[in-house]
């Protein structure tokens, strides 16, 4: 990461041309904020780039800290990214870290195979259908508790659990009322096994009064309520990794286990529940590494939390506005791009491109003696070469695109249109055509970079804001409807069909 940081800060490149080209291309995905390197995320905020030592600390806190659940390598790397961190060997380091974890090796599943995708069970909306089951008996804890009742929503995969000393209809009814009905509303149905604590007149009457449909799984077939069985397995496995010799402390650790499970990235259910679960949590909470530890690594999270405020502070915005307001049109009066802060160079380039080249068409162009003949700049060249600029004070011509983008590609070729300026009016038109050159010339590369900068993908809200109010409302309605339909189909595990397909079509794509 050091070569990228040096290039963004000082425009310093490695001596090897191949490595220099690689650094240039990779640097487009990074930026420098307050002297620290950040990576631009596709759908996430900026990610703080860490050293391997800092990355190891972050992995340890996420993996086995207060909110850690000894998750696998893939989930561990996903959590680190969601916490706002990145380094090139993130996934490799996460794999190596989990392989060296003693508790993970002791309590990991014996078959080293990826989790089998769960069979999709359709639930129409969040918290409409819950699975209910029991765990136990377990080592007796405080208050003589040795059981746990677990409930899982089939749509969002959100889990609720409570430790119990005894299991009877009254305790189950109280759990459903307090943890499901009062928190998430009355569900449409509840799926349980055939245990007496569920299949009894009291609990059936409770469900009947609330218009809850009570469904029972097939005897000796736990797969009928597989969602809650899968969560039970995760809870028991996580408790094993957190408990040492004090097995009776599991009731106190149960909330931590639920918290860790609620923020986990599960590859077997990624299409049908994790996205909705992340919507509930909205964002991952801070890890123990960011809460009062005396470890010097605390500054990592603190600086990451300050990025948003520093980026959006009014002082920073006013500074950028002042720079853009005072841009000089005359090429001779412009500040060199290297003197601008690296974080605002693209904004400056974009502002100049929006203004267009400096073309003083009404100026009285002076004559110069060239080879014994008085010659001058011809204003008609502005019409033929849209990139052409003219500096009045030096009586010289410049190229708008090369002036701002040539250094991004290579430091070769004539500097006539970017340095001192072009003044040979005797062969002006021919020299300008030579400057443009073939398709792969430096000029055309610079022009392509300018086009890409002006047409680069922006946030959807920025793109929509350029249209009229009526068009914005129409675009936003279509966008929201498309996103809702897509999320619903993903969560239900259904195929995507196009709106112009027949009911008997076997095509499973072209939704959009």
UniProtKB/TrEMBL annotation:
Residue numbers spanned by region Disordered: 276-321
Signal sequence segment: none
SMART domains listed in its UniProt record: ZnF_TTF
Gene3D superfamilies to which the protein is assigned, alphabetical: 1.10.340.70, Ribonuclease H-like superfamily/Ribonuclease H (3.30.420.10)
GO BP term, pick one: DNA integration
Low complexity bias spans: 303-315
Matching InterPro entries: DUF4371, Integrase_cat-core, Integrase_H2C2, Retrovirus_Pol_polyprotein, RNaseH-like_sf, RNaseH_sf, Znf_TTF
PROSITE patterns: INTEGRASE
Domain of life: Eukaryota
Domain Integrase catalytic, residue spans: 122-304
Molecular function per GO: nucleic acid binding
Cited PANTHER family: PROTEIN CBG26694 (PTHR37984), PROTEIN NYNRIN-LIKE (PTHR37984:SF5)
Name of this chain's protein: Integrase catalytic domain-containing protein
Organism the protein comes from: Prunus dulcis (Almond)
């Amino acid at each position: 990461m050091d070569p990228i940081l040096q290039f963004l800060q000082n425009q310093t490149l490695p001596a090897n041309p191949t490595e220099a080209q690689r650094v240039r291309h990779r640097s487009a995905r990074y930026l420098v904020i307050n002297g620290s390197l950040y990576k631009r995320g596709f759908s996430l905020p900026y990610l703080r780039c860490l050293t391997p030592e800092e990355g190891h600390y972050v992995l340890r806190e996420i993996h086995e800290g207060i909110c850690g659940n000894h998750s696998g390598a893939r989930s561990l790397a996903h959590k680190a990214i969601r916490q706002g961190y990145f380094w090139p060997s993130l996934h490799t380091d996460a794999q190596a870290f989990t392989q060296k974890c003693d508790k993970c090796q002791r309590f990991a599943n014996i078959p080293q195979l990826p989790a089998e995708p769960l069979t999709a069970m359709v639930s129409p909306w969040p918290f409409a259908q819950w699975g209910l089951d029991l765990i136990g008996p377990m080592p007796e804890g405080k208050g003589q508790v040795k059981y746990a009742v677990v409930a899982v929503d089939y749509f969002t995969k959100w889990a609720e659990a409570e430790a119990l000393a005894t299991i009877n209809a009254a305790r189950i009814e109280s759990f459903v009322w307090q943890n499901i009905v009062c928190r998430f509303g009355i569900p449409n149905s509840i799926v349980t096994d055939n245990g007496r604590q569920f299949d009894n007149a009291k609990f059936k009457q409770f469900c009947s009064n609330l218009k809850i449909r009570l469904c029972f799984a097939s005897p000796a077939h736990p797969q009928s309520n597989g969602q809650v069985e899968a969560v039970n397995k995760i809870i028991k496995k996580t408790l094993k990794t957190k408990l040492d010799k004090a097995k009776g402390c599991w009731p106190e650790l149960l909330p931590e286990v639920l918290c860790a499970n609620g923020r986990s990235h599960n590859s077997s259910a990624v299409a049908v529940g994790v996205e909705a679960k992340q919507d509930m949590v909205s964002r991952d909470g801070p890890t123990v590494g960011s809460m009062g530890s005396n470890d010097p690594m605390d500054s990592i999270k603190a600086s990451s939390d300050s990025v948003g405020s520093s980026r959006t502070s009014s002082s920073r915005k006013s500074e950028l506005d002042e720079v853009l307001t005072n841009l000089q049109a005359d090429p001779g009066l412009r500040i060199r791009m290297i003197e601008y802060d690296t974080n605002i160079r693209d904004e400056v380039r974009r502002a100049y491109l929006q203004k267009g080249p400096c073309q003083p068409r009404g100026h009285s162009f002076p004559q110069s003696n060239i080879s014994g003949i008085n010659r001058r700049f011809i204003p008609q060249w502005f019409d033929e070469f849209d990139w052409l600029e003219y500096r009045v004070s030096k009586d010289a011509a410049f190229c708008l695109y090369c002036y701002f983008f040539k250094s991004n590609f290579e430091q070769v070729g004539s500097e006539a249109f970017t340095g001192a300026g072009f003044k040979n009016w005797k062969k002006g038109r021919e020299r300008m055509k030579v400057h443009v050159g073939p398709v792969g010339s430096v000029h055309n590369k610079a022009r392509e970079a300018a086009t890409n900068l002006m047409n680069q993908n922006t946030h959807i809200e920025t793109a929509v804001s350029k249209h009229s109010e009526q068009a914005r409302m129409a675009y936003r309605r279509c966008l929201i409807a498309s996103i809702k339909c897509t999320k619903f189909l993903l969560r239900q595990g259904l195929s995507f069909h196009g709106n112009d397909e027949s009911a008997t079509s076997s095509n499973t794509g072209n939704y959009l």
